[in-house]
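User: Show me a protein chain along with its predicted structure.
Assistant: Here is one chain, sequence first, then structure tokens.
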Amino acid sequence: MQAFHDPLQHFIGSLQDFIDPLQHFMEPLQAFINPLQHFIGSLQAFIDPLQHFIGSLQAFTDPLQHFIESLQAFIDPLQHFIESLHVDVHGA
């Protein structure tokens, strides 16, 4: 039984020797991750209203584009009509 117990104790000790520095490494890593998570949350709090603003802008620009296209559809025939009224004063 002792032949089994001693290697097991050695394995557990080696495992503890690995875990202790790992925990020491994880503490500063967690100290870095926590502010990073806070920054990402703040960034998300900025991005959400920005996306809403872009959506609102799109809701404004779509009708504006439609208005410009309608205006162009009105101007083109008007311009053609004005050109048809043009009298050649140098000719004839």
